[in-house]
Amino acid sequence: MTSKLEINFGYLFEEDLISEIEKLGVSKGFKEDTTIIEVGDYIKSMPLLISGAIKILREDEKGDEIVLYYLEKGDTCAMTLSCCMGQTKSKIRAVAETDVELIMLPKEKMAEWLGKYKTWQAYILQTYHNRMDELLEALDTIAFLKMDERLFKYLKDKAMVTHNDLLHVTHKQISEDLHTSRVVISRLLKKLENERKIQLFRNSIKVLEL
Question: Going by C-beta distance under 8 Å and a sequence separation of 6 or more, which residues neighbour residue 129?
């Protein structure tokens, strides 16, 4: 675990904090499309993302979902941290966008490290700042962009976090993530293809403009 910690967090955290994480952290792996955190779960540990990407979703009363943001390696989830600190139930669902490797940290250490390590405090504050920016961007996207613009942004964001411009995703999956109908998505994907922004294949989409 040490080498992976140093590669991903060595430039952020001091040696003593890295040593504590190595001692207390538990390595976990999740396959693509696996639910990591469910709505309503009590959070017992906080994840540090070593590799892969995680999709954070919000669910309404009907069970429909919408993507809020993605986490990449080196990230953690501010909403998970809030649940750890406040001992409240999760209000989001976290799903592995790709195969994921995490280090799970005991929630009891979160507050202690804030006072003990300045680098941890800076990391957590920056995490809150980054996630707030992403939530505002998600809100702006829903409020101000037309659906075809939302769709193209969604595809570009997905390509960037997976580091792959060929996306293996169905029209139904996209419609669920964007909280709209599959028919609308299929029509708009064809429009984007005609505009030469994407190329459609069977069960995959190539993003041509990144």
Answer: none
Is residue 33 classed as helix, strand or coil in its secondary structure?
A: coil
- H or E segment and range at residue 37: strand 35-37
- Locate 131 and state its tokens: 């996630």
Residues in the chain: 210
H-type alpha helices, the chain: 2-9, 15-24, 78-86, 108-116, 118-144, 147-162, 171-178, 182-194
Q: What is the pLDDT along the chain (210 residues), one digit of tens a residue?
A: 567 777 778 788 988 999 999 999 999 999 999 999 888 888 888 889 999 999 988 887 777 788 888 998 888 887 777 776 666 788 889 999 999 999 999 888 888 898 899 999 999 899 888 888 888 888 888 877 889 999 999 999 999 998 899 999 999 999 988 888 899 999 999 999 999 999 999 889 999 987
Taking Cα atoms as reference points, which of 159, 119, 107, 153 lies closest to residue 134? 153
pTM to 2 decimals? 0.78
CB contact set of 200 (below 8 Å; sequence gap of 6+): 189, 190, 193
- Alpha-carbon gap, residue 11 to 92, rounded angstroms: 29
User: In the structure, how many helices (H) and strands (E) does the chain have?
Assistant: 8, 10
